Amino acid sequence: MLTARKLLVTKLRDIHLAEREGLHRLVLTAARQDETCRRLMTVPGVGPVTALTFRSAVDDPARFDRSRAVGAHVGLTPRRYQSGQTDRIGHISKQGDGLARQALYEAANVLLTRTSKWSSLKAWGMNVAKRAGMRGAKVAVARKLAVVLHRMWCDGTEFRWGKDAVAA
Length: 168
Hints:
By secondary structure, the chain is mainly α. It is about 65% helix and about 10% strand. The chain has helices spanning about 1-35, 35-40, 50-60, 70-75, 100-115, 120-155; strands at about 80-85, 85-90.
């Protein structure tokens, strides 16, 4: 009886892995066929899922006057409470597209922790980590990634590893 159950679990696991592999291939194909996604994937930490998610969340880059507004669009800017003499700055607002925010946060995590090649963006994030901790740095880098990705999309440029990459 126990071996029949193990066989069923193994078969279900194999089916699940095969479906996952098929979906992964579809995502890779979609990202490779899109010129914008290929350009966005030149940023360290940004893979096909992040590029596709960001592209679908922003949809039309011309609807933002400034690239800084994209961080607010995905909910990566701090909340503010202002009333009379009170002015409090809180955690991020979490307004907007949650999947894009999650993908940008994961890309920032990869950039700060797993990418071995240094860029000015990673150096900036590590300096923020010294002041605000690693979690705060990941949120700050995610917001800056949104700004950089939007600017790259508008300009049609690839990621620059030098000092001008953090100009936002």
